[in-house]
Amino acid sequence: MYDIELRQVAKKYKGSETDAVSGITLDIRKGTIVTLLGPSGCGKTTILRLIAGFERTDTGEIAVAGQVVDDRKTWVAPEARDVGMVFQDYALFPHMTVAGNIGFALKGRSKQQRIREVMRLVDLAGLENRYPHELSGGQQQRVALARALAKNPAVILLDEPFSNLDTDLRTVMIDELKRIISQAGITAVFVSHDQKDAMTISDQIVVIRDGIIQQSGTPREIYQFPDNVFVATFVGQTNILDGMMGADDNSIITEIGTLPCMHTHSVLAGEKVCVSVRPESFVVSRDGKMSGKVVRLSYTGKTIDATVDLTLPDRKTRNLHISAHPEELIGIGDLVRFNVIPDFVAVINCRYLQQSSRSAASLHN
Ligand code: ADP
Ligand code: MG
């Protein structure tokens, strides 16, 4: 059962030469948390606004909670859609109190009771008579969230909800939002340009570039088995290598040696491939088969992130990003030995999944 369905949705803004988004097909399962992840300008907000009904599709179809809300024959106004939205800047009414903001779209006798309920849900009880300017950023966000939840929608949309919060508050809000969403029993779509936030909060991540979906999957699928070079490099750090499929199904011959690989997309032996090797795939070990000189190092507490220079048989050198256990005693200039484990080695599409006409320009956005 899906709460949000998009079929081949495209949208071009007036005066623009290219589509803001195109070919968007997406099924979002009821009760899940999904993040639209991608760089600035890739079309994330546009997709939210299309779902909410603040924009109309040029082509394609959108259904919310099983009801078609936008296609060539149908148009359901935003207020009649089963959707609540939290805007990036919160968009609170400055002249209204917290309770006034939250109850804005509510009618009828149970209005006051519902305001109290959602205020309790988002942990704002006691602040009903304050004005937005008398609240902290985190509290304002809770008011925006409470307003979006007030009508008890099937779906809630949140545009970059963490971008204005500092790191500590961000961690707290991510946990809080998970709790609130599961307690309210709703489906949530987040927009984010931050891969860490997306990994932490989502059941499903949809990676977007230039208005086109590059990959959709669980955080683990996206990180471990990226489909193409954009996803591999945008979501976490990686090493991209050219190679050739080995004679067996699970090895790839590259310039740095033969690497084990479990995710080969059933490529045939001898075919040219591109591989993504995450830093965690290089495991530092005294009897490691490969070695390289440490040229850069940063200690994060959880890991040591190092760049090593490998000298290849043809005497060229090649940079690799590797990740070592924080207890390893490694310094700049040291020679480290390491092996490769297959867990984070994946064959990927060397090109972006689909190129759109916007590609070159928007890389610099
Ligand atoms: P994101 O939220 O991922 O940063 P947006 O959906 O806001 O991206 O924008 C996608 C593209 O559409 C961008 O190229 C942006 O400049 C353009 N765009 C967004 N809103 C409008 C608008 N109202 N009019 C014209 N172009 C727009
Ligand atoms: Mg945006």
Protein model, in words:
- It contains 9 helices and 20 strands.
- 22% of the residues lie in helices and 33% in strands.
- A hairpin with a 5-residue loop joins strand 11 and strand 12.
- Helix 3 crosses helix 4.
- The structure holds adenosine-5'-diphosphate (ADP) and magnesium ion.
- Magnesium ion binds next to helix 1.
Jot down its keywords.
binds magnesium ion, Rossmann fold, six-stranded mixed β-sheet, 365 residues, alpha+beta, disordered C terminus, binds adenosine-5'-diphosphate
Q: Tell me the CATH topology of the largest domain.
A: Rossmann fold
Task: List cofactors, ions and other ligands.
Answer: adenosine-5'-diphosphate, magnesium ion
- The name of the CATH architecture of the largest domain is 3-Layer(aba) Sandwich
How confident overall, as mean pLDDT? 91
Q: Care to give the gist of this entry?
A:
The protein has 365 residues and is an alpha+beta fold.
